[in-house]
Fold this sequence. Notes:
alpha/beta; eight-stranded mixed sheet; four-stranded antiparallel sheet; 10 helices
Amino acid sequence: MDFLTGAKAYEADMRAFFEDLHQYPEPSHGEVRTNARVRDMLTREGIELLCPADNITIAIVRGAKPGKTVGMRFDTDALQMQELTDLPYKSKRDGLMHGCGHDAHTTVGVYTAKLLHEHRAELAGTYKIIFQPAEEGERGAQEVIATHLVDDVDAFYGLHVWSTYPTGTLHATPGGVCAGPDMFKVVIHGRGGHGAMPELCVDPIAAGAAVVQSLQHIPSRFISPMQSVVVTVGSFQAGTRCNIIAQDAVLEGTLRSFDDDVHKTLHETFRRVINDVCHAHGCTAEIEINEIAGIVINDARLARLANEAAAALVPPEKIQPQIPSMLGDDFAEYRRIAPCCYVQAGMYAPEKGCCHAHHHGLFKVDEDVLPLCCAWMAESAVRAAQD
């Protein structure tokens, strides 16, 4: 089965589908048009579909021979951000953009399903192509898992195009590759009043400023330098006027860790530092930590199969290791069911304008990598189904 030649035959259609998705981005939990387009494309091919919700689609390709069931996750949601490119297919929806490549992933999912369906008479096993909503910190993987439609999967692959790796490189390394992301909200309660009489007030802004400073000591003084931790306060909201001491201050941000024990220590220290600092300032704090997903850990066998599949598609110098990242992905949640492997395809190509980071307003996908991504996913899944 020559999946790469087959994928290249779809290239023009693939680009058109990708560019259509890019023009009509949808936020987490609102990916209805995207799923309608996916269903339309796959229904025309006679591919079996499971549609448990308007924004969840699972395509099924059944091989003619017995084998394992392999799931492939493709996320579909866009970001609430303004596109700054001048692409002819730029977003038509103000304040929404596919700034992370999920439109590329959805496209790869559709055409991977088509490739596998074309070769179903030669295949062993069953393939579930999962179009997942709400990856951007909104528990989309958990929603898919809750349908129980992937309970029978023996192995999962997930793909992400990656803006920092050279275009056309393929990356699959065993072990941890993405951190476990937590989101937090801290409400600091003080006692408001007139800005000219601070002695009669308890200032939550002063306490909040001290909290922000103190939290930076967690990675540097409370966690071993041999461990990776991120503590970021991304939002600080308080006050309404220059001569009013606020009643409350609200801090929001993210915690990231790469080890389960470190994760526990991070939470404990985070709560203690906030409570101690607030107490010293005469304030109290409400602390909410939302654990979005676990750590993405690649199964050694699936990573090996992905690299063997890559070797069938590209020269050896194009097969490169993954660099672990403090970014998170709810693909980690599928490990509750079966071993997983999260692979990345490079698409850094400055000469094409593909040189901006994910979540940047000028982010651009190198469309030339789409056929290669399809072939790699199909080849990896087939090997996993019969291994």
